[in-house]
Automatic annotation (TrEMBL):
Keywords tagged on the record: Amino-acid biosynthesis, Aminotransferase, Proline biosynthesis, Pyridoxal phosphate, Transferase
Organism: Microbacterium rhizomatis
Protein name: ornithine aminotransferase
GO molecular function, one term: identical protein binding
BP GO annotations: L-proline biosynthetic process
Family recorded in the similarity comment: Belongs to the class-III pyridoxal-phosphate-dependent aminotransferase family.
PROSITE patterns (UniProt xref): AA_TRANSFER_CLASS_3 (PS00600)
Amino acid sequence: MSLDTSALRIIADENRHLAHNYHPLPVVIARGDGAWVTDVEGKRYLDLLSAYSALNFGHGHPAILAAAREQLERLTLTSRAYHNDRLGPFATALARLCGKDLVLPMNTGAEAVETGIKVARAWGYRVKGIAPDAATIVVADGNFHGRTTTIVGFSDDPQSRDGFGPFAPGFVHVPFGDADAIDAAIDANTAAVLIEPIQGEAGVIIPPDGYLAAVREICTRRGVLFIADEIQSGLGRVGTTFACDREGVVPDLYLLGKALGGGILPVSAVVGDAAVLGVIGAGEHGSTFGGNPLAAAVGLRVVEMLETGEFQARAAALGEHLAVLLDALVGHGVTAVRVAGLWAGVDIDSAVGTGREIAERLLARGVLVKDTHGQTIRIAPPIVVRATELDWAVEQLRVVLAG
Ligand SMILES: *Cc1c(COP(=O)(O)O)cnc(C)c1O
């Protein structure tokens, strides 16, 4: 292997001109196929992160690639100054998947969250009758909704927030998982409650049973919108289409992203009924790339794949398998495990290392995971992964935990 293509040389070259806003694992990926990636030196790794669930269908899923290729040759961008022939079918399919009337397409997850905030405020003033500029939104401690200044302003993670103010006002914090605290926090100026049904970046934090149903009941009773950020939890990951489905709950607005782009390009959306999302009029919100025909073609294929229920069922079955494997590690270098579908937070005993150290040791054994908040590793394989591959990956984890 020549020096020019060695991983260390590539990383050093990259660091020279790339801002240091990430601390990646020392591996340089060159190819991906299903649940596997290959580095520049030809070594293969099982990808247990899936780009934070943006790769729910795996690397290079043939059906998604086919939709993208076909569209790439035909039309990729029009802006919303014109209509394009792909956006309507995408919106129709996504609205049907969500059981809602309307779709507002954007690109990144953070843009979907920002859009949700704007829609909630507009609804608060125009429908609920909140006094101008007085609307508030209830958010949860430990939240992660993206990286814009408004969003980090209502994060309580110092690394995300500190040094980036001043921040937009209008957000009220409550503990995650405590429905009574939401009820107590709501007043006449509250437009919405914005939560992740399962907190991803916080470490796959699953709220107590009945929480989502209680939030739904409270929002309905108090005349407040329930906004579910399903950007990481949604689209098959937890064994159902949405994490809200685990409690049979339908929010007023779904915020979607990540896997909606099929692992190919950023595609996000806000989905809701006309009584809510319909408050936004022409010229009040937009995006140059949002709803572009390439994104719509890919998003439509993703929705079609979810409509069969095949990926949800597979995530549920594999998730039960993963839970059994991971539960056996508790007390053996692992202090706690939380599993929802094919999504797990694994708390590492500090006696055996930090989450980052475990991730580095797994890398050396051909398994890619990402640490979060120091002692936790997150496991979110592509849903196309095989049960035997999970067996092998968890065996590698057992070995590195044993030292
Ligand atoms: C990743 C994520 C976002 C932000 O998505 P980007 O595409 O990175 O802007 C928002 N909410 C949740 C729950 C996420 O996991």
